[in-house]
């Protein structure tokens, strides 16, 4: 089967009305699309219970006449099985399908976010113990396909590769400051010209605060 016979769309519900419009179009036109939603329980600091009243996202697909499936997003094998089945449906029936993967967000939303301000540490630890990676590792170890020794070796090798990649990246010549303003428009608009003048003036006033290894 040619994988180009269907489309996979991963989306965020915060994307205004695009989600609803896309579902409706896909349903009416019978487009072979898989809509994959990872429902992590949060929109930054807002829980889904305060986002909408419906029971998750899968029911929204049904409201538009789109076949929908909900799966444990922390179960690697379950997700694989569901996506495989969804792909078969999309290709053979040439119809859209919604897959809602329930996968709780254990980490903070971003490096600037402290999620303990809006949820308890106990809740975080409860879901951390149900991490999809940890669960899958236990399963393959139980089947004799992985071991603690292999895990340690893999982690060590991966860490070394990452550190080497960081060193190479740090040695790479940095792009000039002007690239911030010239890489989008053929003719730089006035607002960007003003921003470039502002930042260059700031550098002239405080040259010691600008990295010396970045060309102007």
Broad shape: extended
Element-by-element helix/strand order: EHEEEHEHEHHHHH
| Secondary-structure class | alpha/beta
Mean pLDDT score: 89
- Give the N-terminus to C-terminus distance in angstroms: 51 Å
Radius of gyration: 24 Å
Mind summarizing the main beta sheet?
A: 4 strands, parallel
> Which spans have pLDDT < 50 for at least 5 consecutive residues?
none
Residue share in helices?
A: 40-55%
Note the beta-strand portion. 5-15%
Number of helices: 8
Tell me the total number of β-strands.
Answer: 6
Kindly report the spatial arrangement of strands forming the biggest sheet: 1-2-6-5
Describe the structure.
This protein has 216 residues and is α/β, with parallel strands linked by helices. The chain is 46% helix and 12% strand. The strands form two sheets. Strands 1-2-6-5 form a four-stranded parallel β-sheet. Helix 1 links the parallel strand 1 and strand 2. The relative contact order is 0.09. The mean pLDDT is 89.
Short characterization:
By secondary structure, the protein is an alpha/beta fold. Helices cover 46% and strands 12% of the residues.
């Amino acid at each position: 089967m040619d994988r180009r016979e269907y489309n996979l769309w991963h989306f965020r519900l915060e994307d205004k009305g695009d989600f609803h419009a896309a579902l409706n179009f896909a349903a009416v036109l019978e487009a072979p699309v898989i809509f994959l939603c990872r429902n992590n329980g949060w929109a930054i600091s807002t829980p889904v219970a305060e986002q909408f009243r419906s029971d998750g996202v899968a029911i929204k697909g049904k409201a538009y006449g789109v076949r929908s499936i909900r799966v444990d997003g922390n179960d690697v094998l379950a997700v694989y099985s569901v996506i495989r089945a969804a792909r078969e449906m999309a290709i053979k029936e040439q119809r859209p399908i919604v897959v809602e993967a329930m996968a709780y967000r254990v980490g903070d939303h971003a490096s600037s976010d402290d999620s303990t301000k809006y949820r308890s540490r106990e809740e975080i630890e409860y879901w951390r113990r149900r991490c999809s990676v940890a669960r899958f590792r236990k399963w393959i170890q139980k089947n004799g396909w992985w071991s603690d020794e292999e895990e340690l070796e893999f982690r060590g090798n991966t860490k070394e590769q990452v550190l080497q990649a960081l060193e190479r990246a740090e040695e790479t010549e940095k792009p000039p400051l002007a690239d911030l303003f010239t890489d989008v428009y053929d003719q730089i608009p006035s607002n960007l010209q003003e921003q470039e003048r502002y930042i260059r003036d700031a550098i002239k006033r405080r040259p010691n605060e600008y990295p010396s290894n970045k060309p102007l």
